[in-house]
Amino acid sequence: MKIVFLDVDGTLINYELRCPQSAKEAVRKARENGHKIYICTGCSKAEIQQRDLPELDGMIGGNGAYVEDNGVVVMHQGLSKEDVKHIVDWCNDRHLGFYLEANSGMYCNDYMLSQGPETMIRYATGKGKSLEEAKETSKGFVGGFIHLQGEDLYRDDINKISFILSSYQDHLDSKTEFPHLIANTWGGRGEEALFGDLGPAGITKKHAIDVLLDYLRADQKDTISFGDAKIDLSMFELCAYNVAMGNGGEEIKAAADYITADVDDDGLYKAFEYLKLI
What we know:
The chain is of the alpha/beta class. The chain has 2 domains: about 5-75 and about 205-275, 3-Layer(aba) Sandwich (Rossmann fold); about 80-200, Hypothetical Protein, Haloacid Dehalogenase-like Hydrolase, Chain: A, domain 2 (2-Layer Sandwich). The protein contains 10 helices and 14 strands. The chain has helices at about 20-30, 45-50, 80-95, 110-125, 130-145, 170-175, 205-215, 235-240, 250-255, 265-275; strands at about 5, 35-40, 60, 65-70, 70-75, 100, 105-110, 145, 160-165, 180-185, 195-200, 225, 240-245, 260. The strands form 2 sheets. The protein has an 8-stranded mixed beta sheet with strand order 5-4-3-2-1-12-13-14. Strands 8-7-6-9-11-10 form a 6-stranded mixed beta sheet. A hairpin with a 4-residue loop joins strand 3 and strand 4. The relative contact order is 0.18.
């Protein structure tokens, strides 16, 4: 039995947020063959529940802040309310759109409503989608937010916070402003930074996989991971065998044991066949 960890955006689903039918088939067949399949994503549970995904054995969310196995919460470590307030005020002072990522929902500020659609269009077109497709992706993404104002944004159930970068300097300044937190970027073409995000220290996909393996009493030698971006490198550090998607960035491809086809070219299914999972 193998334990497989799948990144979501650009790996299990495409940049229009759709899961190819072949990917669903690959997951279904692999699970029928006795393998365990988990997603390992930056998304929180509320965002994942909006996606059309196949049945899975569980999830790692928030880039490692949340671990679930068959409905059982194995670990959940979010931001403190004090940190959330600090980040909310900092972003608002800089007029940056942001959204708070919780298992209960995705909560955004005023600026996100005005800045989000254009930024998400840039994200999707940067990943090769037509302007029409990108507008649909943007509409669905922004439509999933719950709009809050003032002190209602000071929540105590937040896994991490993503914010729109007006320039890369916002990310660098966030590292200075919040030295005790983990600061990442994510975005469009290649590794272009469109968003920054802030999450608890010590939280990585690698750490979360370790926690889950310990809970499952499973062996690291039976692990396989799939990813398409720099954030997935921590999975690659831990898992025994690592697959990069054809649409992935150069850094993830260089670290991979195997490079499969693009997400939209049945990349997941082809890799599952190659690895004899199906």
